[in-house]
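Appendix B, record 7
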Amino acid sequence: MAAYMTRVWRTGASTLVRKNGLTPCLLQRLASTDIPSDQSQDAADTTEPHSSQPKRRMRKMRLSSKDGSEVSQDLFISPELMPPMGRRYRLLDYMSRLDCYRRRMVVNIPEFYVGSIIAVTVSDPYAKGKTSRFVGICIKRQGYGIGASFRLRNHVNGEGVEICYMMYNPLITKIECLKLEKRPDDHLLYLRDALPEYSTIDFNMNAIKHPPGKAVPVNDIKVKMKPKPWYMKWERKELQGIDFSILPEEKLEHAKKWWKPEHTKMDILQRWELPDDYTRQIEWEVTQHEREKRRAADQGR
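Structure tokens (predicted):
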């Protein structure tokens, strides 16, 4: 790792100084930072996501329009831009975020959460019109930086279909958020065992515009499950979006033995957040990126 960091430092430091105006002192400060360690998140679908739903930051930022007036806009930081727990190298994280910002200059990635209805258009040389479009409900988000991904689910011709997209895949030409909402759970993988009506989305659905400045609504619907067998024993997970009325009370009480004990819920690592200086740095980067993107859009008109 040290040898790799040395190569990255020699090849990337001069580029960062030349293109972004970073001084060697700032690069040295970005090179390494210690963040409390924790168990690494398993990317498998059978495990629960470690991080909770991303928080929407309602701080205001002022952007200059083409006519010189200032427009106030909510500052939303996408969760893949926030580094996870563990020992981090700020320089590598910063270079990864730069790649994300460059990709976002080409494709607009809207704000969305687990439970939102998303439409993704990708380049497909074998499809009619050289593009294919898929609409589905977001059941999972995971990953950090340029490797972030999200999974969509829909029922097509009576069959459940899931597609996992890399968020910064260059084949993606458009991402639309047709309905912005949240769910109380970190993932919706249990929709695989739920009735099809809860994950059936019309491909011709019209976008529902979210009022600017308003909080994102939380859909607390409880889905009804199919008879067993299930993909997992969901009753052993503390999930709020499932209606377990089809299970007897004895099984529900027995399943509570696998729930997290009360003392583990008070673990400070469960409430860990980035240091304030690191958070302010990322907020400043996102603000500068939004201003640059708005300036490029005004010049293109």
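Remarks on this record: DSSP finds six helices and nine strands in the chain. Strands lie at 60-64, 70-74, 117-123, 131-142, 149-156, 159-166, 172-179, 223-224, 242-243.
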